[in-house]
Design goal:
Elements (H helix, E strand, L loop, with lengths): L17 H54 L1 E4 L8 E3 L10 E7 L6 H11 L13 E10 L13 H6 L10 E8 L5 H10 L14 E19 L4 E3 L11 E8 L27 E8 L5 E2 L8
Parallel strand pairs: 1-10
Antiparallel strand pairs: 1-3, 2-3, 3-4, 4-5, 5-6, 6-7, 6-8, 8-9
C-alpha cells in the first residue's frame, strides 16, 4: 500500500496587528488634534484682531468729531449764550462726563445755497425756507444705548437716555450722544433735554427749533474729559471757572469690543454657583486738543499752556 504524501502550501497573508492599528490611530489623533488646535488659535486671533479694529474705528470716528468741534469752539466770558458747560460723572462702571459749547458746524448742503435754490424754485405763495446757521451749540453726553433699529428720539427709553437714569444698565450698554442745535442758550434745548428727556419744538418767541441728535458710539464703557488750567498748571476733572477758559482738553474714550465665548471657571467657592466669565476685547483711545486763541471772544485767555 502506497502512502501518498499531501503537501500543503502555506500562503503568507500581510496585515496589521491590533497593536499596530492602535498605534496608527493614536498618531493620527495626535496629528489631527495638533492641527485643529493650531487652526483654532489662528481663527481666534483673527477674530480678536477684527473686533479690536472695529472698536478702534468706532473710537476714531467719535474722537474726530469731538476734536473738530473743539477746534472750532467759540467761548465768550461776557455772553452767557457762548458759555462752556462741563460736568464730571464718575461711576462704578466708568466715567460719564458731559460737555457742551458753541462751535462752528459744517452743514451739508450749504444753507445759503439751499435757500437760494428754494428762492428760485418756489412760487410767490410759498414761504422761504429758514436758514440753518453753522453756529450751533453742541453737547456730548453718555446715556443708555437705544433700542436697535430706533433713533434716539423714537426710542421707548428716550427719557432714561437723556435724564441719566442708568441704574439697571450693565457695562457696554451705554452710548455716546451728540446733540446740536441752532439755539445757543444752554437751558432752552440742552438743559430741557437732560432734565426732562423731551426736545422742545419752539423757543420763547414761537420760532421752530432745529435739533439733531446722533449716536456716535454704541457699547461705550467710559467717556472721560479733563481740562488744563495754564495758570496753575493742573488738570481739572470739570471746568467751573466762569472767568477763564481751559487751555487744552484731554479726551479718553473706552469702548467694548464684541464678546468672546465664555471661559471655563474653576471650582465653586463658598457654595456659590459659578458664573461664566465673558471675555471682551475693548479699545481705549485718548488725545489732547489745544484750544485756539481765537476760541475766546470778548476776553479771557486761551491757547497753549
Amino acid at each position: 500500500m502506497k502512502i501518498q504524501e499531501i503537501r500543503t502550501d502555506i500562503v503568507d497573508e500581510s496585515g496589521l496587528t491590533l497593536v499596530e492599528m492602535l498605534m496608527a490611530v493614536s498618531i493620527l489623533v495626535i496629528i489631527g488634534g495638533s492641527a485643529y488646535f493650531a487652526f483654532k488659535t489662528a481663527v481666534d486671533a483673527y477674530h480678536r484682531t477684527e473686533t479690536r479694529i472695529l472698536a478702534a474705528q468706532r473710537c476714531r470716528v467719535a474722537m474726530d468729531r469731538l476734536v473738530t468741534d473743539l477746534r472750532n469752539m467759540r467761548i465768550s466770558l461776557e455772553e452767557p449764550e457762548l458759555a462752556l458747560y462741563t460736568q464730571d460723572g464718575p461711576s462704578q462702571l466708568g466715567e460719564r462726563d458731559m460737555l457742551s459749547f458753541v462751535t462752528l458746524v459744517r452743514t451739508d448742503p450749504d444753507p445759503f445755497l439751499k435757500q437760494l435754490e428754494s428762492f428760485q424754485s418756489q412760487t410767490s405763495t410759498q414761504a422761504p425756507i429758514p436758514l440753518v446757521s453753522n453756529v450751533q451749540r453742541v453737547a456730548y453726553f453718555v446715556g443708555p444705548e437705544p433700542t436697535p433699529g430706533e433713533s434716539s428720539l423714537d426710542s421707548s427709553n428716550s427719557q432714561d437716555v437723556f435724564t441719566g437714569d442708568t441704574g439697571d444698565q450693565q457695562e457696554g450698554e451705554f452710548a455716546l450722544f451728540r446733540v446740536r442745535t441752532t439755539t445757543l442758550d444752554l437751558e432752552t434745548v440742552i438743559g430741557t433735554l437732560l432734565q426732562t428727556g423731551e426736545v422742545p419744538q419752539t423757543d420763547e418767541n414761537g420760532e421752530p427749533i432745529y435739533v439733531d441728535i446722533s449716536t456716535l458710539i454704541a457699547g461705550l464703557v467710559s467717556f472721560d474729559l479733563k481740562y488744563f488750567d495754564s495758570e496753575s498748571e493742573t488738570w481739572r476733572t470739570s471746568w467751573d471757572d466762569m472767568e477763564s477758559v481751559p487751555s487744552a482738553v484731554q479726551i479718553l474714550i473706552t469702548v467694548q469690543g464684541e464678546t468672546q465665548a465664555p471661559a471655563s471657571t474653576g471650582a465653586a467657592q463658598s457654595g456659590t454657583q459659578n458664573q461664566p466669565i465673558v471675555q471682551s476685547t475693548g479699545m481705549t483711545q485718548s488725545t489732547m486738543v489745544y484750544l485756539p486763541v481765537s476760541a475766546t471772544a470778548g476776553g479771557g485767555q486761551g491757547g497753549r499752556p
